[in-house]
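How it folds:
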Amino acid sequence: MWEDIGRNTRYEDVVVSPVLEALPITKEIGASNKLIHHAANFSEVDRVVERVCGKFNVVLALPKGTEAGELGSREPNEVIDTGRIRLLRYVSYPGKAAGCS
C-alpha cells in the first residue's frame, strides 16, 4: 500500500488521509516517499496546505475498506484504485496560500 502511494503520486501532490499518517523519519515515509498528513475533513486539509504556494494537487489516500467520510463530499478529478488503496486526486486545489506572493 505504501509503495502504491509513492508510485501514483507526483511532486506537486499533497497527500492526506483520514486513517493514515506518514511523518518525517518513519518507515512509512521511507516506503511511500511522501509525507501523508492526517485529515478527516476539508477544513483540516486547508490547514495542511495553508502555507503551500504555487500550483498543487490534494490526493486523498484511502486504504482498502476505508470510507472517505466527510472528504467524500467533493468530486475528485481522478481516481486511482490499486486494489490495496484508492487515491482521489483534486487537481489545482484552491488552498489559502498564506504568505505567498
About this structure: The beta strands are 13-17, 36-38, 57-63, 78-81, 85-90. The first strand starts at residue 13 and ends at 17.
